Amino acid sequence: MTEKKTPWVGDQVHDAHADREGVITDVKSGTYILRPVHRYWGETWTASDPEKLTVTMSREERLRKRREE
Questions:
Q1: Residue 21: which residues within 8 A CB-CB, separation 6 or more?
Q2: What is the distance between the alpha carbons of residues 11 and 54, in angstroms, rounded to a whole number?
Q3: How far is CA 49 from CA 53, 60, 67, in A?
Q4: Contacts by 49-54 with C-beta closer than 8 Å and gap 24+?
Q5: Which residues does residue 61 pair with via DSSP β-bridges, in sequence order?
Q6: pLDDT over 90 (residue 28)
Q7: What is the DSSP-derived secondary structure letter of residue 1?
């Protein structure tokens, strides 16, 4: 059985509610703040239900991939 990873800051996730991919930049009072995958500033959105967030790439994987580029 595979355990579902709880999303956290730095993880790339699919937000089922917003139907978009993003990176978690912060968590404040249980609300997740996300930004688009290929942007660092500007547009953000929030998600209050972690059950609607599916980790597509962990923070560790993202950092490893960046180092390999």
A1: 12, 13, 14, 15, 36, 37, 56
A2: 10
A3: 7, 23, 31
A4: 49/17, 50/6, 50/7, 52/15, 52/16, 52/17, 53/7, 53/13, 53/14, 53/15, 53/16, 53/24, 54/4, 54/7, 54/13, 54/14, 54/16
A5: none
A6: yes
A7: -
- Secondary structure (DSSP) of 9-60: TT-EEEETTTTEEEEEEEEETTEEEEEETT-SSS--EEES-GGGEEEEE-HH
Label residue 41 by pLDDT band (50, 70, 90): confident
Q: Please calculate the CA angle 30-11-48 and round it to the nearest 5 degrees.
A: 25
The band of 49, judged by pLDDT with boundaries at 50, 70 and 90, is very high
**Who wins on pLDDT, 46 or 69?**
46
pTM of the predicted protein model: 0.87
